[in-house]
Amino acid sequence: MDKNNLNRRQLLAAASAGTLAAVSRSIPAYGNISNKGRKLAILGGEPVRKNKSWPGWPYWDQSIIDSVVKTTKSRIWCRIQSKSGTVPTFEKKFAQMMGTKFCVATGSGTQALHTCVEALGIGAGDEVITSPYTDPGTIASILVARALPVLADLDRQSYQLDPDDVEKRITENTKAIMPVHMMGQPCDMGRIMEIAKKHNLKVIEDACQAHLAEYQGSKLGTIGDLGCFSFQSSKTIACGEGGGIIGNDEQLMDKCYTVHNHGTSRAGRTEVAGPKYRMNEFEAAVLLGQLDGVQERFSRRNQNAAYLTSKLKDIPGIVSQKLYEGTASGSFYIYAMTYRKEYFNGADRSKFLKAISAEGVSLSPYIRQGLHKEPWIEHILNSKVYKKMFSKKRLTRYRDQIPCPNCDKVCQEMAMIWASGPLLGKKEDMDGIANAILKVYENRDKLHLI
Ligand SMILES: Cc1ncc(COP(=O)(O)O)c(C=O)c1O
Predict the structure, then answer these.
(1) What's the angle, vertex CA 392, arms to CA 391 and CA 396, rounded to 5?
(2) How far is CA 154 from CA 53, 109, 298, in A?
(3) What strand order describes the sheet that includes 148-151?
(4) Which of 38, 78, 103, 145 has the fewest other C-beta atoms within 10 Å?
């Protein structure tokens, strides 16, 4: 076997055959750096990245400031004061950017998702299948409608919903699937849409992390019946707190407007029960002030991500997020990888993360446990409301089906970079990330000293 010329599969085979140490010698450091013989920074060596700063996030420039000042002086601070205020203008521009006919802006991604659940008439006694590996806002949007969030397990490599497990969890009460495009990368939407069609289910895409990402020629959020986004500060389009719903069905989008406007339609009639979830004009001013640069930053993140993936792919035990066929681009809100400790002398992920951090690269374990392990489950199973809405038999089966073993593994193995700012860095910054990981890999026999 030529150790200097191994592809990834051969590397993995070599690892399981116990020849990993010999193989590792053949991996070059990136850029102009050599890691050979360099002591880990956490053990007193020089860090790979001495300047630890990254492009800051959230992004701001003079155009955002001007936009907020203009709104302040206009005295139009609330969306219903003017049809040409910042919120209606942002809605038009965002819909255009996403390639849909309509957008309704909300105060958060959670509000956007809940508005969709209500607008689709989903409520007490209904079930919605979604992921345990997500922000709590995803399930909150189902719970506040008094529907039952049914959590399906993940594909271990993509961290997305496993469509087969989704299909297994469909019952006669299931009304919708809420796929979550984790890390800003597409779920297996081909399969999910097929399942939805077969079982006559609605699809609400949780694209809260996935601005502008494309799958099989469509932007995420435009494939299902409705798509939802978050503009919370950390997201790649951000205004502090904010959200948006996109869609092409005029009647349904009008319903979303009515629901989010305390049940009051555009014509001013109060028609249904609904919360007040309107985005305010200052949030939209911040969003409008940044839209011009959004596409360029999106492209830059995608280029940097592709470069970083090409550098990481030969490091044993580090596996970048699996992307489904048809993935053309991602938002890269998060750059995610799996850490396989068996390739790092069995060192726990916490030691790996500490060592990487000392090299000047901050990786995070992200979600520590899936939502299937959080106390809300007991809360609803013991609540008067859910006991009234669902039979004892259904709730017993619900409890039995809670385990999501792949999600548990993903939570244990995840190592990710908050990427909104860092992936706007230079090529040297990407080299720095790859070199830090490689250096730790090459010193894996020292990780027990940490
Ligand atoms: C996947 C996902 N869904 C839903 C939400 C909720 O969005 P928001 O925080 O704007 O309410 C988030 C926010 O982080 C998210 O990442």
Answers:
(1) 120
(2) 34, 22, 26
(3) 102-106, 243-247, 226-230, 202-206, 174-178, 127-130, 148-151
(4) 78
Rounded to the nearest angstrom, the distance between the alpha carbon of 52 and the centre of ligand 1 is 28
232 touches ligand 1 (CB under 6 Å): yes
Query: Rounded mean pLDDT of the chain?
Result: 93
Distance CA(424)–CA(414), nearest Å, equals 22
Query: Tokens 């989010």 sit at which residue?
Result: 260
Beta-carbon contacts of 47 under 8 Å, excluding residues fewer than 6 positions away, are 41, 358, 359, 360, 436
Q: Is the CB of 138 under 6 A from ligand 1?
A: yes
Contact 67, 288 (CB under 8 A): yes
Residue spans of beta strands (DSSP E) within 263-333? 318-320, 327-329
What pLDDT shows up at residue 26? 44
Helix (H) or strand (E) holding 175: strand 174-178
| Pairing outcome for strands 414-418 and 334-339 | antiparallel
Determine contact, residues 359/49, Cβ cutoff 8 Å: yes
CB 262 within 8 A of CB 275: yes
Whether the CB-CB separation of 212 and 238 falls below 8 Å is answered with no
If you measure from the C-alpha of residue 17 to the centroid of ligand 1, how many angstroms do you get, rounded to a whole number? Answer: 43
Contact 226, 207 (CB under 8 A): no
Q: Which atom of ligand 1 is nearest to the CA of 243?
A: 10
Q: Is 106 in the pocket of ligand 1 (CB under 6 A)?
A: no
Q: What is the pLDDT of residue 51?
A: 80
All structural domains of the chain, each given as residue ranges with its CATH number in brackets, are 24-57+293-367+410-449 (3.90.1150.10), 62-292 (3.40.640.10)
Separation between Cα atoms, residue 360 and residue 305, nearest integer Å = 18
Query: Which ligand 1 atom lies nearest to the CA of residue 137?
Result: 6
CA of 108 to the centre of ligand 1 (A): 8
Decide: 420 in ligand 1 pocket, CB within 6 A. no
Query: 286 Cβ partners below 8 Å, 6+ apart?
Result: 64, 67, 68, 238, 239, 240
Helices (H), 80-235: 86-98, 109-119, 136-143, 163-168, 189-198
Taking 50 as the pLDDT cut, the residues of the chain under it are 1-26, 32
At 6 the pLDDT is 38
How many angstroms is it from 178 CA to the middle of ligand 1? 13
Burial of 145-168, coded b for 16+ CB within 10 Å and e otherwise, reads: bbbbbbbbbbbbebbbbbbebbbe
